[in-house]
Amino acid sequence: MDPLETIAAPTATRPMLGLTVLVVEDSLYASEALRLLCLRSGARIRRADCLRSARRHLQVYRPSVAVVDLGLPDGSGAELIGDLTRGAARLGVVAAMSGDPGVEAAAREAGAQIFFEKPMTSLAAFQQAILAQLPEEYRRSGPRPLSGEPIEPDPVAYKDDMAHAAELLQENTDTATLAYLGQFLHGVARCAGDEELEAAADHLSARLAEDQPLGSDLGQLAGLLQARVGQRMAI
Fold first, then answer.
1. What are the structural domains, with CATH classification, of the chain?
2. Span 61-113, pLDDT tens digits
3. Which among 14, 37, 62, 195 is least buried, having the fewest CB atoms inside 10 angstroms?
4. Order of strands, sheet of 20-24, starting from the edge strand that comes earlier in the sequence
């Protein structure tokens, strides 16, 4: 069944009423922003935090829209975007999301119709991008109010992301884990406007790319994470 066949009639204030959005995002903070965007637009949301979880979801139901982060713990979101924009599994609207604007070309090449650069906090921009990709018969005609108020996710979700990152750093410092951690923290810090942590994440990624020693860098990063979690953790 076409996932758009079950759409309820949208309204001026809830133009995405009846849509189900699958959010594939490993950050709780970024996911919370998308949850609020969907809620205020009238859409239902389901979340997967990795490629494996997303594929389990897709075996059970068909969303109307998918928003896929490109940096996931078990691979690139571009792989899933390719699956969702080709063949029998194709969805009507597939958006990519990343804190790195330089990956937009790769997202488009994979098949994404939309690219959201983190932080995504504008309700108007979110709605306009999604609705523009829907078939004409599913769009509500006429004017509708557009809120200019930015979405502000619960800061508790940011703290949870920081605790997750601190646990990763504490448990494993292999190159693959650190590469993922740098990418993860860059995106989360960018969403939260945490410039200090974003710079530290970028520094970690640069040092990894140059195959440089990381001892003092990891200690400094651990300190930043501990400060944001609000409790002391063993290094």
1. 20-138 (3.40.50.2300), 155-229 (no CATH)
2. 899 999 999 999 999 999 999 999 987 667 889 999 999 999 999 999 999 99
3. 195
4. 44-48, 20-24, 65-69, 93-98, 114-117
Q: What is the pLDDT at residue 1?
A: 44
**Closest to 162 measured CA to CA, from 201, 216, 209:** 201
pLDDT for residue 158 is more than 90: yes
Per-residue b or e along 113-141, where b marks 16 or more CB atoms closer than 10 Å to that residue's CB: bbbbebbbbbbeebbebbbeebeeebebe
Q: What local confidence, expressed as pLDDT, does residue 143 receive? A: 52
The residue to which tokens 């490629």 are assigned:
51
Q: What is the DSSP letter of 210?
A: T
The one-character DSSP state at 139 is S
Q: Which of 4, 73, 79, 15 is nearest to 42 (CA)?
A: 15
Cα(89)–Cα(154) distance, integer angstroms: 34
DSSP 9: P
Is the preceding peptide bond at 135 cis, omega within 30 degrees of 0?
A: no
* 3-state SS assignment for residue 44: strand
According to DSSP, the β-strands at 93-98 and 114-117 are: parallel
Site of tokens 């710079």 = 199
pLDDT at 232 over 70: no
Please answer whether residues 161 and 187 qualify as being in contact, where contact means their C-beta atoms are separated by less than 8 angstroms. no
**Whole-Å CA distances, 57 to 65, 94, 218:** 13, 15, 35
